[in-house]
């Protein structure tokens, strides 16, 4: 059971001291984002909320198995953050379920994750456990979602008219 938790949390078989690229992260995130774009907003929000809860449980269990607080190999939180960011309407006239939109969302999320805007930085430094691991990336994903929404609805008046 521990190996399954580690694979779900890290996207790879974790072994101490070895850096491995989580190859499943982006294809699975793209598939899930395509799924949530094909259903109604309320269904997409319910699916994302359910996934957040499951991810928090898995991240907490993986943290205990690895025995490191907010261990770097745990990437299920990044998956959740990208999925939340992908709930936004795409800027310009890019199709919502396209690979280009997914790449834009992923890059913006990864950049914002490095910056860790408030309250994500506070969550990361003051809370612990599976919920905290996922919550800081949920906040960052929310910032990216709001930024893209802002660009979609207000940017066209300034940049793309």
Features:
single chain; 161 residues; 8 helices; mainly alpha
Verbal overview:
With 161 residues, the chain is mainly alpha-helical. The chain has one domain. 68% of the residues lie in helices and 0% in strands. It has eight helices and no strands. The protein has helices spanning 2-10, 25-37, 41-66, 76-85, 99-115, 120-126, 130-153, 155-158. α2 (25-37) runs parallel beside α4 (76-85), α3 (41-66) runs antiparallel to α4 (76-85) and α3 runs antiparallel to α7 (130-153). The protein is globular. The N and C termini lie far apart (55 Å).
What is the topology?
Layout: H1 2-10, H2 25-37, H3 41-66, H4 76-85, H5 99-115, H6 120-126, H7 130-153, H8 155-158
Helix pairs in contact: 1-3, 2-4, 3-4, 3-7, 4-5, 4-7, 5-7, 6-7
In short:
With 161 residues, the chain is an all-alpha fold. The protein has eight helices and no strands.
Q: Percentage of helical residues?
A: 55-70%
Question: What number of structural domains do the residues give?
Answer: 1
Total helix count?
8
| Proportion of residues in β-strands | under 5%
Residue-averaged pLDDT, rounded? 80
The tally of beta strands, per DSSP, is 0
Supply the helix-strand structural class: mainly alpha
Spell out the helices and strands N to C. Answer: HHHHHHHH
- Major β-sheet profile: none
Q: Work out the radius of gyration.
A: 16 Å
Approximate shape: globular
Our measurement of the CA-to-CA distance between the termini, rounded to an integer number of angstroms, reads 55 Å
Low-pLDDT stretches are none
